[in-house]
Amino acid sequence: MIPLLLLSPVAGVILALLARAPWQAALGTAACAAGLLSGAVIQGMSPRVAAWGDLLRLDELGSYFLLIVAGIHFLCSVSAYGYFRRELEGGHIGPAKVRMYHVWTNLFVLSMVVVVCSHHLALQWVAVEATTLFSAPLIYLHGDRRGMEAAWKYLLICSVGIAFAFLGIIFLSRAAGDIPLTYTALPLAAKRLDPRFLRLAFLFFLVGYGTKMGLAPMHTWLPDAHSQAPGPASAMLSGVLLNCALLSILRVAPAIPGAYASPLLILFGILSIAVPALLVAVQRDIKRLLAFSSIENMGIVVLGLGFGGAARPAALLHVLNHSVAKVLLFLVAGDLILRFGTQKIRHIHGILRESPLRGVLLFGGILAITGSPPFGAFWSEFGILVGGIAGGHLAVSLVYLILLAILFGSFLMYGSDMVFGEGVPRKLSGPELWCLLPACVLLLASLWLGLHVPSGLYKTLERLSIVVAFS
Amino acid sequence: MKFVAHITLFILLGPLLVGVVRKTKAFLSCRQGASVFQPFLDLWKLFRRGIVRSTSASWVFDLSAPVVLGASLVLAAATPLWSREVPLPMHFILFLYLMALPRFFQTLAGLDTGSAFGGLGSSREVAVSAMAEPALILSFCGLAYLGGADTVSGMVAVVPPGRIPWRPEVILLAGTMFLLLLAENARIPVDDPATHLELTMIHEAMVLDHAGVDLAMIQLASGVRLVLFSAIVSGILFPQALSLPTFLAIPAAVVKVVLSGALIGAVEAGMARMKLSRVASYLLIATVLAAIALSVRYAG
Amino acid sequence: MNTITILLLLLGFHIAVTERIPTAIRSLAAQGALLALLPFLASPRPLWRAAALGFATVAVKSVAIPAILTHAVSRLEIKRETESLVSTKTSVLLTGVLSLSAFVACARFGLSGQDQLGAAAGLTLLFSGLLMMTTRVKAITQVIGFVVLENGIFLFGASSGSEFTLPIELGIFLDLFVAVFLMGILMLKIQRTFTHMDVRKIHTLKD
């Protein structure tokens, strides 16, 4: 199975390189993404663990993340077709650059597939570093100075962060001795590992991969990078790349003593919610707003993992909910930016009057990402709160609740400014079907996850939360 | 007897080392260069000349040259050149302060004549040596720590014979000492001994007013000083050579001195003089290296 | 091994204090060549593995990366001086303090002997790389700092005896190479659009 999963992005790269016209490249990417998605679904259904050699192994946790990667990639590749068609019509970008977009995106997805399939932690490190390298060209695709500035920061800060994670791997191998650094072997030997090195290893993992996840205070690159990439690329960066970094931390978690790890996770988590809560109120750029929301949501996930107990499955569920809602928002935002020709929030208003579909999508997305019922994120955020209170973290839970309320207020303010109000003088052109169809699917998915969490999913998450529990 | 032999060897090697440095420098810049024995002839010439002294100079000026030479020879008596046994074992703190004594007199003499260049040279000399002081003290402390002895002769031979000598901290300390050698003896990255431009001089400006026998004594003293530092650096790096039997050890000492002369000459030929303002960085680097050597020792 | 470690440390020190970019690049290449010897000393069996790693180290760290950087220097026609937000003296002192703290940290942590020297030297390189990345003004010196940092981690890993299978080790080298390559390309592009390489002036994106 794994060779097939790896093959489909590779095929996407080849098709994009062979393509004569942008639409061909887009079609190739979408087809390969569909292949990857079906592969991921088949693997997800089957109870067997796929393995290829000692280095690659896809267990249930990996499958869960792979499904998110593949699903989002498929929807983004559909949306990218519509997005770049508009960009080409507008003359913002040349066909060669669109082709490069498809090449880099497929490589980027390939590296993420390797991240989720890695059995060996050092291989996973290599793959995470590769995600940075392959996604950097997406950020400066337009070749303007802001994009380059963002890409420079992204490359430098993430590379240094990842270097720290490698230091963590060195400490881990020191702690492990002869035990191979695989996520199956380490938890079994958790009691035999040298605790001093283990603690250092986890600290460096958290700081290193946390940089890649955008945890505060290592988040500084994230708003720049996510706001400068083209719409679908921003969606991928925000919706799936952050999850891959999270998975890298989860893989080592079972070997770490919980008494040491939990306070650290809670600290980073609450900090990552607090920083956006304070900074969101002064944002002027719609994509930066969404990027800060990503930091916040990663903070929520990490906080949930730190709480442990009932909060852990909720945190894993929140990974999915965040991806769905955030990708929806980035896709809609990308479309709006093309229509309005600006990323400034104050120039975007009256969407509902001009284009009801976009208005509903944007407002729905904002409700979904802030965790209001009836969307999925409500349940996961609520679950984390319950888990926190049940785990005895009353004060932290209270702070968490207050910060969520602040964020909800800010987002609702921006959302109502953009969606309601007087229409713009120019009439918006009709909805670009390919751009908005994936967004509709995602909105429905979020709604579905909110109204009815499938029992199969819930059981899976319960099982996974035992897998990622600290020792 | 031994005392006389020790001092004589220092006095003979001093001008030779200066000659070797000049010859290497000439060779590397594709010049013929004077013979390595030229400094002996220079000294001979100077010793036969009378003294011309400034009318404004006082007894301090007259005293300075003999004190400089005398102090340098006392220091030489404490430095192991071919054997661990030295005529005058000396605590390293005393050694460091005795090193400052000739400089004190030299700077006074530079000021004493009242000439502009003398004062300029003195002030620069004092500045450089003040900045070199921490590095010097730190590296001597490091050597004392490594060697487990507080006399200069005891600590230079840090490694017992028969063991692998090149521990990292030893290499670091030798490097620091070499940097200090260049700074303390007015060699190139810090000062240019061959310059003819008074404005850029440091050491040479200070002794500009000395002539004849006085100048000869000062030049001899600086040669001895150079040998002294080379002996310390090579003693750190090759302590085994210090425990050879005497008939082998003396030629070995001569070889070491000639080699270090070649090294100094190579550095002088390959580098340009630093700006005065960068000398501080240079000496700071030496200090930090000595500190790292100490911490390596502490860690290992 | 000890000698190599000390030489690496000194070269790192040299890179941190030198004020000329080409000199720094040369020292970086020399560091790469020294690092290539480590696999032979740390884990010489099987020989072909050590040889492959040594070859990869030389190819990436002392040929490819210096070539990219040299190319960038000549193409960008930047001045040869490194520019720093702090004076040379301050950075000398800071590097010294950092290396002292690295040694003390390693001693406190209870590593000993061979281990300790390598680990402390690796940490020192890492710290001085970070220092260069944060205090230097020019983009290229930041990249040099990044490579020094990576070298430090490499040394640290080699002295802690962490080994992975060959594909992973080669993957690590490939990652480093691609990272520097991309940074090089970005530098050229930044130069073209910003007409300067001063990262102090790159701050259009902020909150």
Provide an overview of this structure.
- The complex is a heterotrimer of chains A (471), B (300) and C (207).
- In chain A, 77% of the residues lie in helices and 1% in strands.
- Chain A is mainly alpha-helical and 471 residues long.
- Chain A folds into 2 domains: 1-248, no CATH class; 257-471, no CATH class.
- Chain A has a two-stranded antiparallel ribbon with strand order 1-2.
- The longest helix of chain A has 32 residues, at 145-176.
- Chain A is globular and about 70 Å long.
- In chain A, 63% of the residues are buried.
- Chain B starts with a helix and ends with a helix.
- Chain C has 207 residues and is mainly α.
- Helix content of chain C is 78%, strand content 0%.
- In chain C, helix 2 packs antiparallel against helix 3 and helix 4 (88-108) packs antiparallel against helix 5.
- Chain C is globular.
- The N and C termini of chain C lie far apart (49 Å).
- The mean pLDDT of chain C is 85.
- Classes of the chains: A mainly alpha (471), B mainly alpha (300), C mainly alpha (207).
- Chains in contact: A-C, B-C.
- Chains A and C meet through helix 5, helix 6 and helix 9 of A and helix 5, helix 6 and helix 7 of C.
CA distance, first residue to last residue of chain C? 49 Å
Q: How would you describe the oligomerization state of the chains in this entry?
A: heterotrimer
Tell me the strand percentage band of chain B.
under 5%
Number of domains of chain C: 1
Structural class of chain B: mainly alpha
The helix count of chain C comes to 7
